[in-house]
What does this fold into?
Amino acid sequence: MVDLDLESDGAARLVLAVGVAEGYDVDERFEASQSGLALPVTVLEDVHGGRLHVLEVAAGPVHIEYTAAVMGTAAPADLDAMQEIRYLRPSRYCESDTLRPIAVAEFSGLQGAELLAAVSSWVGTRIAYVTGSSLPTDGAVNTLLSRRGVCRDFAHLVVAFLRALDVPARVVGVYAPGLSPMDFHAVAEAAIDGVWHVVDATTLAPRQSLVRIATGRDAADIAFLSARGDRPVRIADLQVRAVVDELPRDDTLQPAELH
It folds into this structure.
């Protein structure tokens, strides 16, 4: 569930990545309103099955609600040749070329599930999770230097290390039952032997209950809200809630897939 109140200072185009990705059996509702009137919404699908809700707003308060009931699991994510190339390249927030010497020094000789566990443990024990400690423009290098960050920063550093070691890796925006305080969550996803595995160095929520929203090279591809207009759009209030019938126990040393 997402309950979002915005304040727009002028006409703007809003793009929201809050809907559950394609592939799930889901009963959902997306509603947007301004001045008591419903706003028309266009839904676009991205290359990984994520869905963007696009709407035009005028100046004034905007209210958005999204609810979804997800039944069962989605099929495992595929890995094709183009994805492998795309997710081995450095990106804006995952500077794997810059971090390659450190990655080789710390993780040389490790492969497969052992490598994923080692990178996750290294990042999770050396980076402090501190709310509000990073800027939206910070990348993996800044996170390593400052030794603190939030979930997107942890994911960026994990992805950068893995790409530096020739492992395809990407960032995923998810709903995360068990996360406290509740919010949108970002994790890494790495391809080993043709299978995508979740890597969450924060260990703040069980990987087995995560629900995919958006997938991309880094946080620039999975932002839950972007706005285009001549005047600012501000978040007045945001509430996110995600629950599951039974919260699983996560063995962080074992691989886990995002279904």
About this structure: The helical segments are 81-86, 96-107, 112-126, 140-146, 151-164, 219-222. The first strand starts at residue 2 and ends at 8. The domain at 81-221 is CATH 3.10.620.30 (C8orf32 fold). Residues 93 and 139 are 4 Å apart (CA to CA).
